[in-house]
Structure formats: structure tokens, C-alpha cells
Write a structure and sequence with these properties.
This protein is an all-beta fold and about 110 residues long. It has no helices and 7 strands.
Length: about 110
């Protein structure tokens, strides 16, 4: 169960997605900015990752993940795919305006 997670990160020069407990092979260039807005969208178990510098124009990361196997009884512990936030490495991070909501018609 400790590897059933997805995520995205930014190291100042590129985006990295995390799938199955490890960094994805695909690392995309991303703006070298102090503030970067991240969005993770799960539509019917297809997870997409986005980033933006202004919260108006969003760029989709090239890697998408099908996650139906990440849910409930897959590993016999009744867990499900849930959102979480974390930061790692030197420096600091600030999380603000976090929103978790169901999509219309979901």
C-alpha cells in the first residue's frame, strides 16, 4: 500500500510526476519561478497534472495515470486514493487556497 500514490513536484526547472511510489520517467520543463500553482484532477480514475504561473492559463503535464487499481480492495485494506500535500528538500514551501471538491455530475 505504501506505493499506491501519485503526485507532482517542481524543483525550479522541471516538473516531475510520481506514480507507483517513484518518479516518472518523463520530466517536463517548467518555468523557473518562485511561485507555481499546481492542480491535480481525477476524472473517473484518470488523473491529470497541471501547473500555472497565474492561475488563468494551465499547462497539462504530459503524463496521465489510470488509477482505478489504486482504490478500495486492491490491496485488501479498504483504502482509496485521497489528496495530500507535502514538501521536501532545502528551502520552504507554503500551501494556500487548497480546494478539494467533486466534479459536477460525479
Amino acid at each position: 500500500m505504501d506505493r499506491l500514490f501519485l503526485g507532482m513536484g517542481h524543483d525550479g526547472t522541471r516538473m516531475t510526476t510520481w506514480r507507483g511510489g517513484k518518479a516518472s520517467y518523463w520530466q517536463e520543463p517548467a518555468p523557473a519561478v518562485r511561485t507555481l500553482h499546481l492542480r491535480i484532477v481525477n476524472r473517473r480514475n484518470l488523473v491529470e497534472f497541471y501547473y500555472s504561473t497565474d492561475r488563468r492559463q494551465w499547462t497539462r503535464h504530459g503524463v496521465r495515470s489510470e488509477t482505478s487499481g489504486y482504490n478500495a480492495n486492491t490491496v485488501d485494506d479498504l483504502a482509496s486514493l485521497r489528496p495530500a500535500l507535502f514538501a521536501t528538500g532545502p528551502g520552504h514551501a507554503r500551501f494556500e487556497k487548497f480546494a478539494y471538491r467533486a466534479l459536477p455530475g460525479a
